[in-house]
Amino acid sequence: MPLALLALAIGAFGIGTTEFVIMGVLPEVAAGFGVSIPTAGWLVSGYALGVVLGAPVLTVLGTRVSRKKMLMFLMGLFIVGNALSAAAPVFGIMLIGRVIASLAHGAFFGIGSVVAANLVAPARKASAISLMFMGLTVANIVGVPLGTYIGQAAGWRVTFVVVAALGVVGLLGVARLVPDEGRPESADVRAEFAAFRNVQVWLAMAMTVLGYGGVFAAVTYITPMMTEVAGYSAGAVTWLLVLFGTGMFLGNLLGGRFADRALMPMLCTALGALSLTLLLFTATAHHKVLAAITLTLVGALGFATVPPLQKWVLDQASAAPTLASAANIGAFNLGNALAAWLGGVVISAGLGYTAPNWVGALLSGSALLLAFLAAFLNRRTRQAGSAATGTGRPPSAARATAVTARR
Predict the structure, then answer these.
(1) What is the mean pLDDT of each run of 10 residues along the chain (407 residues)?
(2) What's 197's DSSP letter?
(3) What's the whole-model pTM score?
(4) How far is CA 76 from CA 72, 100, 142, 175, in A?
(5) What Rg do the C-alpha atoms of the chain give, in angstroms?
(6) What is the pLDDT of residues 179-189, one digit of tens each?
(7) For the region Disordered, what residue ranges are annotated (predicted)?
């Protein structure tokens, strides 16, 4: 594994910790500011919306500098946001801190995905992307449970001080290990936006919004669900988050490996299984053991969709992948914001803490339908290209044969 992938994983670990740790300390934060749980859920939605905004804006601005320098700047922004969250005197200031930290998220993973893919052979691109995202999944095994424990034992403000320190480590890792490749090959902003003329890019982002949003519909309110419905103690939430993180870690690795072999079949299988699992979570949440098993499966199936979705976007926007890649990371968090809001709506309506699971199942099921549509359109495009060349192969293959024949 190139050491640069390790550096990217370190940065991803810090970002993953701050994204998910809020769910483990949500009751403590709500009590500290004197707001309700659904109101505190805006710290999840606000972060997600910040990612959606920051991903395209900062990526476009970053086309004027090297990818390494941009990654370093993003980690600095991450540090500032978390430090502000730790010191926030009122809820509104903490929300601003969360948004500032989130601005770095989408661009970091978007630019990092391109860097990771460029470090390996074409047949290993999805696996390389999954290795970068491994930092985020490890954060859910180590960083988030530890941050939750610290928040419950020493106060949630200490948690965010530690997260800011993780950002410092990530910054140093990027500075030391990531090679300076110069400015992106496609520094023309118009060329980057041209990628969005491809309907497959939009379909991929819609699948991302709905598919991964299904995970967040349930997980945003996992603490009250596990304590109020399943009957776990508040202290047990730490270990439940370890299980969720372990599922994410395994799902991410398997998703990357199988996406390199059969991308769309892997994606459809994961989305279908995720929708069914979230549906079952409504019932299994009432039983301690079954709830823990289902939570692990939700993490595994949800993150098994990440490498294939990100790889699909890179493939469809291969001429100018940086902005499209970052925008897809924004789509993940748009789904998070939508799902967190919808989960709060059904809870506030009095439908109970398991109601968000129904929302998640519907979102993931909708993503599966879009995956079928994307596969159909891709197959039809390939068949049309083969018929046009009269070779039975896509146009690119026909052109390669023609070039060889002329030599």
Answers:
(1) 78 86 84 85 81 77 77 91 93 92 83 76 71 78 84 90 89 82 57 71 85 84 87 83 86 80 85 93 91 92 84 71 72 79 86 89 92 85 66 46 39
(2) G
(3) 0.70
(4) 6, 11, 22, 11
(5) 21
(6) 776 555 545 56
(7) 385-407
CATH superfamily of 3-393: MFS general substrate transporter like domains (1.20.1250.20)
Cβ neighbour number for residue 259 with a 10 Å cutoff = 28
Nearest Cα neighbor of 322 from 207, 122, 188, 206 is 188
Q: Where are the domains of the chain?
A: 3-393
C-alpha distances out from residue 404 to 174, 382, 388, 399, 401, Å: 42, 22, 20, 9, 5
Whole-number Å distance between alpha carbons of 267 and 201:
15
DSSP character string of 301-341: HHHHTHHHHHHHHHHHTTTSHHHHHHHHHHHHHHHHHHHHH
DSSP 215-262: HHHHHTTHHHIIIIII---GGGHHHHHHHHHHHHHHHHHHHHHHHHH-
